[in-house]
Amino acid sequence: MKKVMVCGCGVQGSTICRKLDEEPNVEEIICADYDFEAAKAVCKLMKKGTPKKVNAANLDEIKKAAEGCELLVNVMPLNYGANMLRAAMDLGCCYQDLAAVENLPECMDVDPYDRWIAGIRYMYENYGKVFAKNNTTAIIGTGSAPGVMCVMARKCVNELDTCDTLNMMVYEGVEAKRFLPFWWSTDVALADMQEDAFALENGEIIRTKPFSRKIYRKWPEYDMRPVMLCEHAHDEPVYVAFNSEKYFKGCKNAYFKYGGVGIQFSEPLYRAGLLSWEEEEVDGQKEIPHDVILKHVPQAPKDPKEIKEIIDEGIISDGGAFVIEAYGKKDGKNVMVELHLSAPGLIESYEKAKMTGEMYLTGQGAFLYTRLFVNDMIDQKGLISSDMLDDEQVEQYIRWAEELGITYTIEIKEDVFPADLKA
């Protein structure tokens, strides 16, 4: 029987805790959060949950709370990742992170422009050795995107003989009458919105500006009406860059494009300088614009009662799209493999599991990596990213996803070329 600690009882962490509660191989789930009330609240919805108050800024507190655990799942903001990783290495347990570590201590002397990429490389090459020596595994980037996206990208690329370009897209269309621009962590969302994005072009990682390189797509999910997507800071192109030859059939170009309600809300703020972290003086008062905006944007709902209230107040739209385009060669022909993921929306997710659609896809998508762990289906040792599952693990993940109503369709189109991705 397994003992697992989930650190962070917010929107996604609470989902993982509740799904782990259903696993017969799990004996106890430590639900840890600095907000002890949040930890207790999720445990009230569980049978095997134990709430603990943990300050993730304190390495010793993490280690004490996770003593005896075989897996540590990190659902905390990025700045706590280094401590969480270190705790797992010191304890000799496995580790799962929905994101990747920001500002890794060993890479602080690297130019800030390259620090995040250097950190991923360092984790692969150095932390990976520690986990391998401990005979354990760490997986980073295990939410919906990256996470579900990486599994589906692998599925898509496996339809090709060789891959030239991979375009990964998310369009979020859920909108309530209540003011809710984001259905996931507002803190992380606003931080991502003002960060430079990454793309892989001609085999090299490049930086692009947020909200730039807009593209338009016509999808059945939106009755073939054009929707706009743009550059957005995400891990996937960097993972593809590091793992192109082994897992992506030589892919030379990779992009992540994002659109929908959150982008429409954030772009004007970004252009007005209101997402900046730089302190400014306003009428004699020193303010950080980002913090002022954050103070006025509500956090995403996670409590079932609040979600029900939002639904009852009225939903303007309950849609979205999650699409991958893989361009390359198959049987000597130029083809594009187009994969569309389908998952329950807000109303269906609430009916199924008393969750939002974002909680359902991201939290349960993350949980499927956790499920691989607790069922002893991860045999890689060291540190990997979510795109580095083997083909058998990819197929098992997809089968479990289908049981949850997370399905996909694939269409192969001949002589279609990625002409607009650099626009």
Can you tag this structure with a few keywords?
423 residues, alpha/beta, Rossmann fold, 2 domains, seven-stranded parallel beta sheet, 36% helix, 28% strand
- Report Rg: 21 Å
Sheet-strand content, in percent, reads 25-35%
What distance lies between the first and last C-alpha atoms, to the nearest angstrom?
52 Å
Give the CATH H-level superfamily of the largest domain.
Answer: Dihydrodipicolinate Reductase, domain 2
How many DSSP helices?
14
| Shape, principal axes of CA atoms | globular
CATH architectural category of the largest domain? 2-Layer Sandwich
Mind describing the biggest β-sheet?
A: 7 strands, parallel
Annotation, overall tally of beta strands: 18
How would you describe what is shown here?
- The structure is a single chain.
- This protein is an alpha/beta fold.
- It folds into 2 domains: 2-97 and 101-140, Rossmann fold (3-Layer(aba) Sandwich); 148-355 and 398-414, Dihydrodipicolinate Reductase, domain 2, CATH 3.30.360.10.
- The chain is 36% helix and 28% strand.
- The chain is built from 14 helices and 18 strands.
- A 7-stranded parallel beta sheet has the order 3-2-1-4-5-6-17, with helices on both faces. Strands 10-11-12-7-15-16-18 form a 7-stranded mixed beta sheet. It has a two-stranded antiparallel sheet with strand order 8-9.
- Helix 2 (36-43) links the parallel strand 2 (26-33) and strand 3 (49-53).
- Helix 6 packs across helix 14, helix 12 packs across helix 13 and helix 13 (357-374) packs across helix 14 (391-403).
- The longest helix is centred in the first third of the chain and has 19 residues, at 115-133.
- The chain is globular and about 55 Å long.
- The model has no long low-confidence stretch (mean pLDDT 93).
